[in-house]
Amino acid sequence: MMLKTFDFEIVNGVGRITMNQAERGNPIDKDFCREFKQLAIECDENPAVRSVLIDAYGSYFSVGGDIKGMTENRAALASMIKSAASELHEGLARLSRADVPVVVAAKSMVAGGANGLVAAADVVIAAENTKFYAAFTMIGFSCDTGSSYFMPRRVGSRKAIEFYLLNQTWDAEQALDYGLINFIVSEPDLSTESRLLAEELAAGPTCAFGEIKRLMLSSFEQSLEKQLADETNAIARTAKTEDSWNALNAILAKQKIDFQGR
């Protein structure tokens, strides 16, 4: 796979997606959106990938949208954004519904659409110096990257609309208190801690992880009865997996449980 804005590798079951445009602040541009979709498909379809880690080279996680690129052709701007956002959003939707759990390692600056990537992730570790900056309304834009869907689910609708309308910046402690992130670590430990967490998830029952992820996504829209029916069907599907059968028998035999992701 030829990539311009990311590096990608699979190690110990972890599909590591690393933003590699450090000298530009890892902006979200056309190439980023197209390649993110490609990588989402790869991580969803490749059985060697049991979890995903999204991180970044350089000082920043991401400065958000590529403002320089947006000013190159005003007449084509809306069409360009619609095309790029559609690809990025398709990748986000695929990863959100995939069996593989997604970990994000955030650091320094997380601006604009990068907050949507953070909110969409299943688990987020942030360095203690991380700032989360809304950014969209500063340039007269509405939000994208799943921000209107995932942010209210993480922090509540009141706090989410406050963040974007008032163009706020949250530090790591605020992001943790509001529910946007899960853990804070020192910056020197971020790479190691996020990798270890991704490897821990990669060693787990990925079919069960996927069912749980999809159930959580649907829980705000459905009736109680429909959600309970979906839970019944999901747990029944996991009961048919090799992982669940082997785990049940390992517990009875007092043996170590070894999940294979099937």
Secondary structure layout:
Layout (H helix, E strand, L loop, with lengths): L5 E6 L2 E6 L10 H16 L5 E6 L10 H4 L3 H24 L4 E5 L2 E3 L2 H7 L2 E5 L3 E3 L13 H9 L1 H9 L3 E3 H7 L4 E3 L4 H13 L3 H13 L5 H16 L2 H11 L10
Parallel strand pairs: 2-3, 3-4, 4-6, 5-7, 6-9
Antiparallel strand pairs: 1-2, 7-8
Helix pairs in contact: 1-3, 4-5, 5-6, 9-10
**Inertia-based shape:** globular
Low-confidence stretches: none
Helix content: 40-55%
**Mean pLDDT rating:** 96
Structural class: alpha/beta
Rg (CA only): 19 Å
Output the CATH class name of the largest domain: Alpha Beta
Instruction: Classify the beta-strand content into a percent band.
Output: 15-25%
The H-level CATH homologous superfamily of the largest domain, spelled out, is 2-enoyl-CoA Hydratase, Chain A, domain 1
The DSSP helix count reads 11
Query: Secondary-structure element order, as H and E?
Result: EEHEHHEEHEEHHEHEHHHH
In angstroms, what separates the terminal alpha carbons?
26 Å
Q: Which architecture of the largest domain per CATH?
A: Alpha-Beta Complex
Structure description:
- Helices cover 49% and strands 15% of the residues.
- The protein has 2 domains: 197 residues, Alpha-Beta Complex (2-enoyl-CoA Hydratase, Chain A, domain 1); 47 residues.
- Strand 2, helix 1 and strand 3 form a beta-alpha-beta unit.
- The protein contains 11 helices and 9 strands.
